[in-house]
Structure formats: structure tokens, C-alpha cells
């Protein structure tokens, strides 16, 4: 139950106690920035160290989270960053309600390519898609080549939320997915008199400035 003519989130089930929503989230960014690792950290609470195995085409994992006492199912699509898989992944963009766009803070080209990723997103994704920029591998302070301020500046230019994450320590990983879930759940259930959910404010109030600690 997804896609649904571009609806923000699809109601799966209603009972007096629970309403559940299904949200499609896609992970994008250059190869080796850590998309699979961020997803595995969120899903299983573990870090995939060791040899790098590039994703082939596209893969997905589900996770159910609680948002204001409602169950929200995130269906998360992990795409291959390698150029040769681009035509495969483009086909999935329009089914995504949210996109997590990653770069690696120790890899300058992966940051420089973010503008090209955003151009692709504007070409293939839904107009109202929620985009979040993530600077991953924040635990690798000694190898850092992209300043946190540069990530913040770029995100501001495009009007998208930003945070640095670490799949290794878990820093901000859960927050990134939870903020997306909250935003889309609010969009789906918004009452006329209800104040709008402010994703930027929420993230600023919750985020950890370094990848030093896990949210648990
Ligand atoms: N130190 C550190 N290493 C990381 C982090 N995230 C990923 N890595 C490492 O970076 C490499 C690439 O991670 P992946 O998650 O496979 O990268 P990807 O973006 O999914 O790559 P593609 O599938 O080719 O698009 C692996 O060797 C990981 O162990 C992180 O937050 N910190």
C-alpha cells in the first residue's frame, strides 16, 4: 500500500487505538558514503564494518516506529550510488515521500556532487518530497575534509534540514529517520487548526553536534 497518486502517506489500518501509516523513504548519494550502513544502523542497531560491499541496483528494509503513539512503517529503499545503476534507481524516485541524501565528510567529491543529486531529485522525484541532507562518518574527525558549516550552508541554500551522522557510533541516525516519520505523519493527519510540524526546529532541538554518542 504505497505510491497512491502521490499521497503523502498511506493509511494502512484504523482502529480505535492505532492508525498506521506507510512511508517510502529513499537513501541517495555517491557510492561508499555509507547509505547501507546508516540503514543497517537504524534497522538493527549495528555497524557494518569491514569490507565495503557496494549495493547492486536497489534493496529495501522495513522498520516500524512510534510517532506520537501511532505506528508508522518506514519502507526504506537503499540505492546503489554507483553511476551504472542510475537508470535503475531513477524509476523509484517518484514513489518516495522522503529522500535522505548523504555525503561523506571525509570525501570532498561526494559533497561536491550533492548539487547534481539535487538536480536529479528535482527531475525525477515528487514535487513535495521531503529531502534531508546528511553528512555521514562524523566519527572520522581526523580525516574530515568537509566542514560542518559547509554542510549547513548548502542545506540552507536549498531549504532542507541537515545533520551530521555516524553509522559507526549511531550519532543522529535514529533522529534523521524519526524526523522524517514525524513530518510525514503530521502532513497526513494535519487538522485545520493544528499547528504545522516544524521539522527544522525539531531537528535543531534534538541533534547531537558530533557523532560521539548514540541515541541508544
Ligand atoms: N567510520 C565510518 N565508516 C563508515 C560509516 N558509514 C559507512 N562506513 C564505511 O564506509 C564504507 C561504505 O559504506 P556503505 O554503507 O556500504 O556505502 P554505500 O553508500 O551504501 O555504497 P553504495 O552501495 O556503493 O552506494 C564501508 O566500508 C563502511 O564500513 C560511518 O559512519 N563511519
Which small molecules are bound? guanosine-5'-triphosphate
Tell me the Rg in angstroms.
Answer: 16 Å
Indicate the structural class.
alpha/beta
Mean pLDDT, nearest integer? 88
Any idea what the shape is? globular
Helix segment tally = 7
Helix content: 25-40%
The major sheet is characterized as: 7 strands, mixed
Quote the distance from N terminus to C terminus. Answer: 31 Å
The beta-strand count equals 7
Q: SSE order in H/E notation?
A: EEHEEHEHHEHEHH
Low-confidence stretches: 1-7, 211-216
As a percent range, the share of strand residues is 15-25%
Quick summary:
The protein has 216 residues and is an alpha/beta fold. The chain has helices spanning 35-44, 86-93, 108-112, 114-124, 148-158, 173-189, 199-206, and strands spanning 10-14, 19-28, 58-67, 70-79, 98-104, 130-136, 162-164.
Question: Describe it for me?
Answer:
- The protein is an alpha/beta fold.
- The chain contains seven helices and seven strands, in the order E-E-H-E-E-H-E-H-H-E-H-E-H-H.
- Strands 1, 2, 3, 4, 5, 6 and 7 form a seven-stranded mixed sheet that branches.
- The N terminus and C terminus are likely disordered.
- The site of guanosine-5'-triphosphate has 22 residues, from helix 1.
List keywords for this structure.
7 helices, binds guanosine-5'-triphosphate, 216 residues, 32% helix, 7-stranded mixed sheet
